[in-house]
Structure formats: C-alpha cells, structure tokens
Amino acid sequence: MSFRDKTAVVAGAGGGMGLNIANDLIDAGASVAMADVKPEPDGIRSEQGRHVYFQGDLTEEAFVRNAVHRTAEEFGGVDYLVNTTGVLWFDRDLSFSTMDLSVWDEVFRINLKSFVLTARCVVPEMKKRGGGAMVHFSTIDALRADTRPQDAYAASKAAVIRLSKSIAIQFAAARIRSNVILPGPVLSPMQARWQGKEAVQAAVATGIPLGRLGTTQDQSNACCFLLSDEASFITGTELVVDGGLTAQ
Ligand SMILES: NC(=O)c1ccc[n+]([C@@H]2O[C@H](COP(=O)([O-])OP(=O)(O)OC[C@H]3O[C@@H](n4cnc5c(N)ncnc54)[C@H](O)[C@@H]3O)[C@@H](O)[C@H]2O)c1
Questions:
Q1: Measured from the CB, is residue 190 less than 6 Å from ligand 1?
Q2: Which domains does the chain have, with CATH numbers?
C-alpha cells in the first residue's frame, strides 16, 4: 500500500498501536501528525522529517483544533485520521452500579469525546482534499459483557462504533470513509500488567483460537488496509482483529 503525498493525523500516537501505525504510514510515504498527552516517544521512523508531534490533551478542543490546523499548514492538507486514544483504568473503572461517576465521565471524555473532536476538526480539511478516510479504535469488549467489568471503558467504546457510522453516513457524499477496528487482547503499554509475565501471557493466549496474543503490528496492518484505496468501498463498518476470540 502506498500513502505517498498523503497526510495522516494519528491521535494517541505515543501509545503502542498509535506509534506502530504512525511508523507504518511514514514507511509507506505519508506525512504524519502525531498527538498524545505523553512526550514524544523514541522510535519514530521519520528520517525525512515527515512527522510532527503535538503533546497535549486530546479532550481539549483548542489543542485539537490547533494541531489539525498546523498539520494542514505544514503538510498541505489532511487525508486520514486514526483515533487510537484510550484509557482502561482497571482499578477505578468498575461496575456502572458502584463506580465513581466522575471516573465514568473522564473515561467518556477521553475515549469518546476526543474522537468527536478530532473527527470534527479533520472533516473540513478532508473536504478540501475531495475525501478522506478515518479509522477509530474500539474493542471486542464493546460486544459482550462480563461479571468483572470495566463498564465505562466498554460503553464508551461501544459508542465509538455508532459515532463512526454517523460519520460514515453523514459524510459519504463528501467521499469521507469511516470504519472501526475492534482489537482483542494486544500486548502494548495499555496491558502493562502482562509485561514480562510469560505465564500470564500464555494463559491469555490459550483462550484465543489462533493461539497467541495480538501485536500492535496486527492492528496496524488492519488499520492501514482500511485507510488505503484498497478499501475504497468499505465504510461504516467494523473489523474484528482478535485471533478468533469472539467467533467461538
Ligand atoms: N491493548 C489492548 O489490549 C487493546 C485491546 C482492545 C482495544 N484497545 C484500544 O486500542 C487503542 C490503542 O491501545 P494501545 O494498546 O495502543 O494503548 P496505549 O495505552 O499504548 O495508547 C493509548 C494512548 O492514548 C493516550 N492518551 C490517553 N489519554 C489521552 C488524552 N487525554 N490526550 C491525549 N492522549 C491521551 C495515552 O497517553 C496513550 O499513549 C485504545 O483506544 C484501546 O482502548 C486496546
């Protein structure tokens, strides 16, 4: 896939999947604006100066607006948006029936409102280019419930699926596509609880039909496909990337 002369905004680009996706887009010829609340990470493969990094809070409209505006100025427009921003607070995000509702609100601000803000800001830029494509990260937890829940995380990620359909339908005439990826368990900073714990990783992998945990590369491969022209007739839908976990 070639993304030569294209520009992408990757939100949550200091994280596992966001950084992997940003690097893959750079390798395929794109210019990439990366945004995250974290400082710029090591390992950005942008020798030709084809990236910019904005450190800030993606729930703040002024920060998002400024980042998108500066991206369009620097690279001449915006063709793609990738929303990977997310928080999964295992210790505080619990059952809806008992959890602190200020935590509920904060999770929704980060996991849902930040996606609304980035999408709102890039749509006018994509229209100027005659179209564009977005990929938003949800989770397989949006599809099913369990007795040890992270309810704010799961509900906010379910809302991402519906938001994406709205974007897809409201802007199809403008040739803007919008799709969602639902990852299964992926070894990344979000799953720091599994880092270095081989036995735990092996135990999680036994529940996955393909027999291993997901990687950030698995997710990036799916994301780059959905952004690419090879997916030009795909919009308003979801791609589960979970090694078969939800199929069994
Ligand atoms: N890792 C998994 O097992 C898994 C599974 C299913 C879905 N997902 C989803 O995939 C996406 C990417 O996950 P990941 O594993 O790369 O996680 P990650 O924690 O490595 O990356 C998420 C990034 O979001 C950033 N972020 C959080 N709040 C922010 C804010 N207010 N402003 C700006 N940046 C902010 C974090 O700093 C972090 O770099 C997330 O949306 C996650 O919910 C992950």
A1: yes
A2: 7-241 (3.40.50.720)
Most ligand 1 atoms within 8 A of CB, residue of 40, 53, 84 to mutate? 84
Order of strands, sheet of 80-83, starting from the edge strand that comes earlier in the sequence: 51-55, 31-36, 7-11, 80-83, 132-137, 176-183, 238-241
Q: Record the pTM.
A: 0.98
Hey, which of 9, 10, 17 would you mutate to test ligand 1's pocket, going by the most ligand atoms within 8 Å of its Cβ?
17
CB of 58 shorter than 6 A to ligand 1: yes
Residue 153 bears catalytic tag: yes
How does pLDDT run across 4-59, given as a tens digit for each residue?
Answer: 999 999 999 999 999 999 999 999 999 999 999 999 999 999 777 799 999 999 99
